[in-house]
Amino acid sequence: MKFQCPNCGQKLAIESMHGGTAIQCPSCGTNLTVPVSSPAPTSEVIKTLQSNIDRGNMTISQYMAQQQIEGGVDLQSTEDKTSASSILTAEQGRKYQLGDIVAQGGMGAILHAKDANLRRNVAMKVMLDPDKAGKEQILRFIQEAQVTSQIEHPSIVPIYELGVDASGDVFYTMKFVKGRSLQDILEKIRAGDAETIKNYPLSRLLNIFQKVCDAMAFAHSKRVIHRDLKPENVMVGDYGEVQVMDWGLAKVLQRKAKKSLRGKSPEFRVPGSGLGIQSKIGNQESSIGNAAIDSVRGDEVGEVLKTMDGSIMGTPGFMSPEQALGKTDEIDERTDIYALGSILYNILTLHVSVTGRNLDEILANVASGRIKKPTEYNRKESGNISRLTSYTSLPHLPNGRVPDSLSAVAMKALEVGTHRRYQSVKLLQKEIESYQGGYATGAEMAGTWRQFALFVKRHKAVTSLVCLISILITAGSIVSTNLWIRSEKSLQDLRDTTPALAAQAKAFVSQQNLDKALQTISYAIKLEPDSAELRCIKGNILQVLLQIGEADQAYSEALIIEPTNKLAKENQELCRSIMLKNKKGETNSLTMLGTLYPAMMNQQRFDEAMIMARRVFPGTMTLEGFYKQILISRGTKCSSLTVDDKGLCTIDLKGASITNLVALKGMPLRRLNIYGTRVDDLTPLKGMPMAELNLDIGETKISDLSPLRDMPLTSLRFTPKNIRKGIKVIREMKTLKEIGIGSELNQFWSATEFWKKYDAGEFNK
What we know:
By secondary structure, the protein is an alpha+beta fold. It has 26 helices and 25 strands. A seven-stranded mixed sheet has the order 19-20-21-22-23-24-25.
């Protein structure tokens, strides 16, 4: 308990158990009595209060009329004060006054409504046909409101209330956004509407796009993906507000190392007498402000909802390849990045990125990546005369042409392989910022002349000054002190080009021109020697060249500048472990590759990893071949090995004459089959990103499954009767969907069904 001495003002802190005790103020010696704290509300008081709140259904206008309180504020009323009784008469005791339908979709409709309590306009979303809606549809409706309400961001529409009406049907209310959709804006530009073209040039459209990206970056930080981003779902307000709408297909990704706020899983019921759906939550203390998104929908229910009314989840033209192919396990934040690339494409060209004669053809084009480059919509030149060939008028763009740099950015975001897209929204935003600031984007792989042209464009005065100085020196003139001062400013302007130089160095790496990449980044470091980021880039390039000592030096210099740089620290330790093995004569280029490749993959340096591998194995080489070479170098032959577009391996060692899994340590595995082998220890698998593991340990000494802890397994086969340790680890896996027993029969059960059989002792025979 904290209180103050009334005499001298000294602040005192004493435990509440000493309430009523006489003490002396340590500062002035005044005799004091420790105050007695007020008792906390009893559980009965809390229960009564909760019961009253639960039963309360009176509107504020009803309450004011009952208490004979006149007044209130309605900003849309012409009167200074609005009579509560007159409002009550208009409302007839209703909490909301409903207006016209604003929008309508496949599952719900949005109505214009007025909140009778706060007297403000709101949007109310209701289900179109609630009587025919199944549990999954109702649950998705509830989830949409719950998820949206918990991602509070200026560019995400806020939810006000989720409730059940008198008929037992669910609804929710949200901010009523006045304005127009981005789709409407782009359609008006394409139609040649002069006012829209004037009000929405590319610069303003990119600012709108950046706000959409801000919202998505925030949602992704909460592990929420939208899955239906498109111009139609972006509202632009009358005063510059941008709102990302319609989170009906949103998905909460698996939480990372965080426990649920609940003690138990939510229970759902659909009563028949107007009570709607209720979520029964365990008696747990709430955690306000917790970063995790909390909704009634669990992962298992989410799998049930992967299609709705037989349709594919998403919108053709803005749907990613993994959505089009139904690869739900590959859907993540990069799925939204693909959609953002589609929106950028639409902004640039006024067309959708993928077209086709019918839905099947559109989905096939999406899956195969058949996309026309945005720059192909530019006016074609024929000889000295510019004539109309096959292009769209782009009056909102500079000179009516799609900039090469933004075209490259859009195409990178629209890559078929998720690992080749931008790996985060922030990286995509940095590219847009580079364009807006007059710098080259990394995606366009700008050459030296392009970089120079952009520099001249950004610094016309400085460039003129440099030319003037050159002319004066050639003529033998003396440079004045004033020009010297101005040339110092020129040097600072040169330092401002280091982001562009860093982007160019990365572009050279992608072009496999490592010497130029190293020269470029070294020059950037000379201009800005205090940048840890630039030295990390240099270290990365040196790693690709397998110049481990020099790479270690670059990372060490980065850590001197920025001691908390995680990337520098991780790679410094990696380099030093290789250098230590070098001293012992335990490494060669192949073993170094085997150490560096998985680390680069974990750091999402996919291009660098593959380029490094090709340097070790010149000529045509696939990732499959590379991994097989690693296994051979470790004394293990593998007949079946494939690699997915994320660089993760599926390895089949069924019946192989191996006794341990040491050869697999550090390899980026997704699926592994070691059925019928003599393996006796799973420890080398610790920390791997595996989704499937096929074990038959009936003829082995394996008895411990605990090394599989925290592994994102979805499928597992093993022999339960042999396990002495680790069953609890498997049982607590929330990702595990099917479990089979070690048998030649391909027999699997759902996790729930398996554990029922296990508890009944069916697998102990």
